[in-house]
Design goal:
- This protein is α/β, with parallel strands linked by helices.
- 30% of the residues lie in helices and 17% in strands.
- It has a 7-stranded parallel beta sheet with strand order 8-7-6-9-10-11-12. It has a 5-stranded parallel beta sheet with strand order 2-1-3-4-5, covered by helices on one side.
- The longest helix is centred in the N-terminal third of the chain and has 17 residues.
- Bound molecules: NADPH dihydro-nicotinamide-adenine-dinucleotide phosphate and oxalic acid (OXD).
- Oxalic acid binds next to loops.
- NADPH dihydro-nicotinamide-adenine-dinucleotide phosphate binds next to helix 3 and helix 5.
C-alpha cells in the first residue's frame, strides 16, 4: 500500500516528512515515481493531468492539496465511488481574507484611479467614498468566503453575501441563489469565492457586470473560468467596471500575450491569494489518512455531483 504525490507547484519534501512521521509504514512516492501502480491506495494532488488517475486500479481516496477540486473532478477517468477530499481552511482562510480585504481597500481608496493619474503625471485628489457607503458583495459563503466576509465587515464595510443556500452570518446581509439581482445591484466591490462547477463556469460575464452599479470593481480569487475574459475587458473599457484584481486565470501561467497583463485597470497576481503550506495543512491530510486507514469517515468529502 502506498501514496503518490503529484504537484508542479508544491514542494514534496515537507509533505513526505509529515506523512512519514505520522504513517511510517506508508511509502510516499513523488511523481513521476509511483512504485507498483497496483499498490497505490492514495494520491495527494494539485492539478493532476486528465487521465492520470486511471493508472492506479486500487485507489481508495484522492486527497487534494487545495480547497478547490475542479481540476481533479474534471478528469473523466477519475474512478467513480471513491472519496475526493478537499482542504477545509487548513490555513487558507486567513490568507484569502487578507487578499480580499486588500482588494476592497485598494478599490475603495481609489488606488486604481490614482495609479492611472500617476502615469499621466496628474496630481488630482478624488472625493473619497465613506466606508459605510462602499458595499462589498461576496459571492460564495463557504469556508473561505464566509471568513473573508466577516473580516471585511470587521473593517467597517457593509458586506453582502450570496450563496446557493441561505446563510446567517453576523454582520453580513446574506442572499441566496434567487436574489442575485438584488445582491449585484448594491455591490460596489464584488469579491468572488465560488467553486468552479458547471453551474458557476462563466458566471462573471457581460450580463452580470451590467447588473452592478457603474464603476464597480472586481476581485477574483476563486477560478479563472468563472470569468468571460472578453466581457471583462469590454466592461473595463466601457467604464461599467472600474478595475479588477485577478489572481486566477483560464490558463495558468497566464499567457504572455493576454490583454490582462497590460490593461491599465487590471492587476494580475500569479495564483497566490492563498498558498497551501505543509506546516498548516499537513495535519488535516494526515488526520484523513488515519481516518481512512481505520475505515472511518474522512473530513472534507467533496460532493462529486455538485462539484464542490
Ligand atoms: P466551499 O465549498 O466551502 O464554499 C463554496 C460556496 O460557494 C458555498 O457557500 C456554496 O453555497 C457557494 N456556491 C456553490 N455553488 C454555487 C452556485 N451555483 N450559486 C451560488 N453559490 C454557490 O469552498 P471554499 O470556501 O473552501 O473555497 C472556495 C473556492 O476558493 C475554491 O473552490 C477555490 O476555487 C478557491 N480558492 C482559491 C485560492 C487562491 O489562491 N486563489 C485558494 C483557495 C481556494 P452553499 O453554501 O449553499 O453550498
Ligand atoms: C485552492 C487554490 O483551491 O490554491 O486551494 O486555488
Amino acid at each position: 500500500m502506498s501514496l503518490v504525490f503529484y504537484s508542479r507547484t508544491d514542494a514534496p519534501e515537507p509533505w513526505r516528512e509529515a506523512v512519514h512521521a505520522a504513517l511510517p509504514a506508508l511509502p510516499f512516492h513523488v511523481w513521476p515515481e509511483a512504485g507498483d501502480p497496483a499498490a497505490v491506495r492514495y494520491t495527494l494532488v494539485w492539478k493532476p493531468p486528465a487521465g492520470w488517475h486511471r493508472q492506479f486500479p486500487n485507489l481508495k481516496a484522492v486527497l487534494s492539496l487545495g480547497a478547490g477540486v475542479d481540476a481533479i473532478l474534471a478528469d473523466p477517468d477519475l474512478p467513480p465511488g471513491i472519496p475526493v477530499l478537499r482542504l477545509v481552511d487548513a490555513g487558507l482562510s486567513r490568507q484569502m481574507a487578507e487578499y480580499a480585504a486588500y482588494g476592497v481597500l485598494h478599490f475603495h481608496r481609489r488606488m486604481h484611479e490614482y495609479s492611472l493619474l500617476q502615469r499621466q503625471g496628474r496630481w488630482e485628489p478624488l472625493t473619497p467614498l465613506a466606508t459605510e457607503d462602499c458595499r462589498v458583495g461576496v459571492m460564495g459563503l463557504g469556508v473561505l468566503g464566509a471568513e473573508a466576509a466577516r473580516f471585511i465587515a470587521s473593517l467597517g464595510y457593509p458586506v453582502l453575501g450570496w450563496s446557493r443556500t441561505p446563510k446567517r452570518i453576523p454582520g453580513v446581509t446574506c442572499y441566496s441563489a434567487e436574489d442575485l439581482d438584488r445582491f449585484l445591484a448594491q455591490t460596489a466591490v464584488l469579491v468572488n469565492f465560488l467553486p468552479l462547477t458547471p453551474a458557476t463556469k462563466g458566471i462573471l460575464d457581460a450580463r452580470l457586470f451590467a447588473q452592478l452599479p457603474a464603476g464597480a470593481c472586481l476581485v477574483n480569487l476563486a477560478r479563472g473560468a468563472h470569468v468571460v475574459d472578453a466581457d471583462l475587458v469590454a466592461a473595463l473599457d466601457s467604464g461599467q467596471l472600474g478595475g479588477a484584481l485577478l489572481d486566477v486565470f483560464h490558463e495558468e501561467p497566464l499567457s504572455t500575450d493576454h490583454p490582462f497583463w497590460t490593461h491599465p485597470r487590471v492587476i494580475v497576481t500569479p495564483h497566490v491569494a492563498a498558498v497551501t503550506l505543509a506546516s498548516e495543512a499537513a495535519a488535516q491530510v494526515i488526520a484523513n489518512l488515519h481516518r481512512l486507514e481505520r475505515g472511518e469517515q474522512p473530513l472534507g468529502v467533496v460532493d462529486r455531483e455538485a462539484g464542490y
